[in-house]
Amino acid sequence: MKPTVLFVCVHNAGRSQMAAGWLQHLAGDRVEVLSAGSAPAETINPMAIAAMAEEGIDIASAQPKILTDGAVRASDVVITMGCGDACPFYPGKRYEDWQLDDPAGRGLEAVRPIRDEIRKRVETLIAEIAPTGGPAV
Q1: Can 12 be counted among the known catalytic residues?
Q2: Each residue of 56-77: b (16+ CB within 10 Å) or e?
Q3: 9 is catalytic
């Protein structure tokens, strides 16, 4: 059974969407990918879309979603990015909090290093939960 990863940030418009895009792109069908926000924005951050497009990853069609109890329950791994106490906690889930700058209101030059840091963390996560050639953990 493939692991499910939920990325959570406040607006579900930047960091969590970039992380979901990277995980889907790099892990393919080895991982189920979800993302949500505690106070979702209306649209995805245009600079996040542009930064990911530079890497050949299209997140423009994604929509910010509200964080639900069900999404957390359905996930094996929950990655939070500054959502604080809004994120529900359930025993038995793997939780990580990624301290990343918020790309909101920043230009493309400032968003690129955030995008690149997210990629590194996603690559590490994939190696831990869904390595190629081996069973998912």
Answers
A1: no
A2: ebebeebebeebeeebbeebbb
A3: yes
Would you identify the CATH topology of the domain 8-129? Rossmann fold (3.40.50)
Query: What's the pLDDT tens digit per position in 83-103?
Result: 666 667 788 899 999 999 999
Decide: 21 and 56 in contact? Cβ < 8 Å: no
Nearest-angstrom CA–CA distance, 54 and 98:
23
Q: 136 in the Ramachandran plot: left (φ > 0), alpha (ψ -120 to 50) or beta? A: beta
Choose, from 33, 44, 83, 114, the residue flagged as catalytic: 83
CA distance 134 to 50: 34
Annotated active-site residue in 9, 20, 27, 122:
9
Calpha distance 116→19 (Å, rounded): 10
pLDDT tens per residue, range 41-64: 999 999 999 999 999 999 999 999
Q: Can you tell me the distance from the alpha carbon of 121 to that of 96, in angstroms, rounded to the nearest whole number?
A: 11
Question: Is 87 part of the annotated catalytic residue set?
Answer: yes
Catalytic residue among 31, 36, 52, 87: 87
CB 121: neighbour CB atoms within 10 A? 17
